[in-house]
């Protein structure tokens, strides 16, 4: 039986419902929008030229509350799935026509020109095109974002597990220890001595761990890799 792919929008929605009741969400967003003044109507040429995230003067009554997310929820999903959340000017993929149509509908309904956008996507989508699913957001203000459109394919069903080692140094160490143990089990008994012994096993395990850890460290430094909490909102390749 094939595992279902991971829908990031569904994961965000589940997290939103767990952390923020709809009543509280509406109250906070309403307070933010009450203090906003409508932006002057200027034609938006391309999403790639959007301004740094500040906020957009949406009309609360016209927004779908299940598409409003706080930065803390976005951050958690980015860290869990090793995604980035950056200004749209860094996004190198193609924006589908469906997303552009939704932007025009939003601008017409709210009588504003959306001035800034954010994109949540895998790191490589900010450098070259790929097939994974980006999400396009518009800032509301005070850490809240409105999901405009999601496109592309869903993420691999095992992505969260595959990137788990990169969440922090503890996870990476545990993963290295487990891989070293499994690799040691593959070494035939009595390969270095006439009979198998516990001492021989742990000596091999120690050297196996050193070897694998050296490869992991070299890979991390050579390619400028870093942990998920550091890169989720970083615009630098080697953050």
Question: Please, could you describe this protein's structure?
Answer:
- With 239 residues, the chain is α+β, with helices and mostly antiparallel strands.
- It folds into 2 domains: 143 residues, no CATH class; 69 residues, no CATH class.
- 42% of the residues lie in helices and 11% in strands.
- The chain is built from 8 helices and 5 strands, in the order ααβαβαβββαααα.
- The chain has a 5-stranded antiparallel β-sheet with strand order 1-5-4-3-2.
- Helix 6 crosses helix 7.
- It is elongated.
- The protein starts with 7 loop residues before the first helix and ends in an 8-residue tail after the last helix.
- About 4% of the residues have low confidence.
